[in-house]
Every structure is written in C-alpha cells, then in structure tokens.
Amino acid sequence: MASSNLFTPAFGGLPQVFFGRKGELGFAQAALDNENSPHKAFFITGNRGCGKTTLLEKISQLAVERGWKAIDVHSAHATQAIIEALAGGTAKTIEKSAKPSMLGVSVGGVSSSSTTEYSGASLGRLLVERCTSLSIHKGVIITVDEIQKVPEGDAENLCSSVQLALRKGLPVMLVLAGLPGSKEKVASYPGCTFMQRAFDMRIGCMQVDETIEAFESVFRRMPQYRASGDAIWEMGLFSQGHPYLMQLVGYYAAERASEFAVGGFSEIGVDLVRSVEPIALEAYRENVLAPILSPLSASLAGYLRAMCEVEDAHGRVGSGAVAQWLGKRHAQVSSYRQRLIDRRLIEPDGQGYARFLLPHVKDYYFGDVSKVERKDPNQQWNRRR
C-alpha cells in the first residue's frame, strides 16, 4: 500500500480520514455540551460496513476533546472491562497500618489489609462514585460496540447502572452501536426497559452531496492525486454513498493511478475508476452483501430477487409488481416486505413502493462483477439512509 493513499478499506477498522456524518456528530456534540439533553443514552444502528464503529470512535474522541472521560469497550466482557476502567482493576486492596505506643514510645507496628472484589453488581456503585468524584473530567461516557453480542446479564448491569447515575443527575453518557434490531433486543431485557426511550441513530448510505464532498475532501489531502470531477462523480455513482464501498473504490483507484504516475502526479479519470470497480465490488460482496444476504430465508431472498427484476430506472419497486412476479397475491408477500424493512434492507418509497437500502443487491444475485451497472443519477440515491 502506498503510504500516500489515505483511503482505508480495512473492514471494521478506523479510517485515516473520517468523512461525512456531520448531522450525527452534531447530535452527539449537543448531548455532550448540554447537561439537560434528553439524549444521554442512545444507539447507533445500521448494517455492516455503514460506519458504526468509526462513528462510535469519533464520538468518543469528540467527548475527550470536550473534557469527558471515555470508556470504550467491545461486546466481549463489557462489564468487566468497564469495571476495570472505573476502579483500576477488578479488586482493590487497602492497606492499613498502626504503630501503638506506650508512654509515648513506639513499641512496633501492626498492619492489616482488606480487599474489595468488584462484580457486575458493583458497576452501578462504581459509576456513581466515579461521576460524583470527578475532578479533571466533565463526565464519563461509555461506548460499547457490537451491543447485540453482549449477554443479557451484562447488558442489564450496564443499563441499570447508567440509569442510576442519570437518576441522580450525574454527568454520564452511554452510546451503544450494533446491527439493526439491537435497540429492540436490548430494550426488551427486564433491566434495560428505560432504553426503550433512547434515541436510535440509524445510519446507512450517505446522501449525494455528502458523498461527493467526502471524496473531494480526501483527495484534497492527497495533492499528488488529481481526480477529475467526472471521476469523483463516477465513484459516487458506483458507491452510492455506502461508506465501506467508498473506501474501497477510492483506495483501488488511487493504487491503480500510482502505477502510472508522471512527474510525481497520478491522474484519476472515469476510465480508471471503472477499471477498478469490479475489484471493489468483489470485496464489497464478500464482506458486506454475502454476510447480510446469504443467511436470509428462501422467501425473503426470493422477494429481493423479484425486486431486482422489476426495479425501475429510478430505483423504485412496486409491491404489486413484486407479488405478480412471484405469482402470489399481495397479501401473501406483504409480511416478507415488512421483515425486509425491519432488517433495513429496503425502505418504503411512497404508497405501494419501496427501494433498496444497500447498493448492488442486483449485482449480488445476478451480476457479473466484470460488468458493473451504473444507474441513472436521477434515481435519487440521496434518499437512501
């Protein structure tokens, strides 16, 4: 990898350049800065590759810049990791010593020690103590990635502890990131019901203007690469605002261009971008589409395939046309449509219509990766979220 290439398509990793999500960061900033904000606990949810982990890390960095203490953990052993961060370990030993004296003369010393073991049940007390005794920090923010993988008991300990601290008016925030349905899953636990009121920051593909601006901002930081406006538009059309796919096509375009550098500059045009799109699409299919689409039931996969067949030039799909293609009545397949909406694979687009929320689903089911379809920009991909 050329050290000058700032695109970072490492799946689940932190990119070298963060782009987009201005609205989401503004939301988090307001929650950090306003002590009366109702959004001290919220979720970030979305499908694979949409940038949940990156956004979570960016929010943590934003909090630190504002004087908060950040505790960032993954789903594995989340409670234990938070306890260690708050208490400095899972146990604390206090040494006490005394020097008895007789007629004012020391006659030796005795010492004793007591050890406190911290368990999940201790988390609430620890959090309250830490927030009460803050000296150099404005508050404590806890971020947890892959929240859907956290065991129910750990999630209950975490949520009930944060609820206790918030009830006492202490400066604490909780941000949880996970797949679609994570909020519903966590909020259903007996000790987490207050999270039903938590905001669900649903993220997906970025809008057109945000996507183009993101590509432009990265290339401005790489002056040795000269990407034409048409090339950037082509990258936007191909990626359709999907963050991981944006990183992929930008990375491979820069790598390919560096092979033909002249005078220290690498030119990136439309033809070069199109030459690397099949490579980027293959990685996207393997790391995003396959893990999401391959586990689907035959009925849901069949509905998506039918949508691919009847999708119009603007990316819209009529529910009646899908049912007709499947040879079923609309009522027979309406539940499939709703389940795909719940999984955030499609979204309603007017009465009786829907559209895909992930790009290149048709390419996954029917496409030849050597012939990448570029849709009409009038399809309003900016409506995808």
Describe this structure in words.
By secondary structure, this protein is α/β, with parallel strands linked by helices. It is built from 14 helices and 14 strands. Helix 4 packs parallel to helix 5 (152-167). The longest helix is centred in the C-terminal third of the chain and has 24 residues, at 270-293. The model is unreliable at 91-97 and 112-116 (pLDDT under 50).
Largest sheet: 5 strands, parallel
Percent helix, as a range, is 40-55%
Reported CATH architecture of the largest domain: 3-Layer(aba) Sandwich
Number of helices: 14
- Determine and state the CATH class of the largest domain: Alpha Beta
- Estimate the mean pLDDT confidence: 87
Query: What is the domain tally?
Result: 3
Question: Strands across the major sheet, in which order?
Answer: 2-7-8-1-9
Tally of extended strands?
Answer: 14
* Class per helix and strand makeup: alpha/beta
In one word, what is the shape? globular
CATH-assigned homologous superfamily of the largest domain = P-loop containing nucleotide triphosphate hydrolases
Please compute the radius of gyration using only Cα atoms.
26 Å
Please name the CATH topology of the largest domain.
Rossmann fold
Spans of at least 5 consecutive residues whose pLDDT stays below 50 are 91-97, 112-116
Query: What is the straight-line distance between the termini?
Result: 31 Å
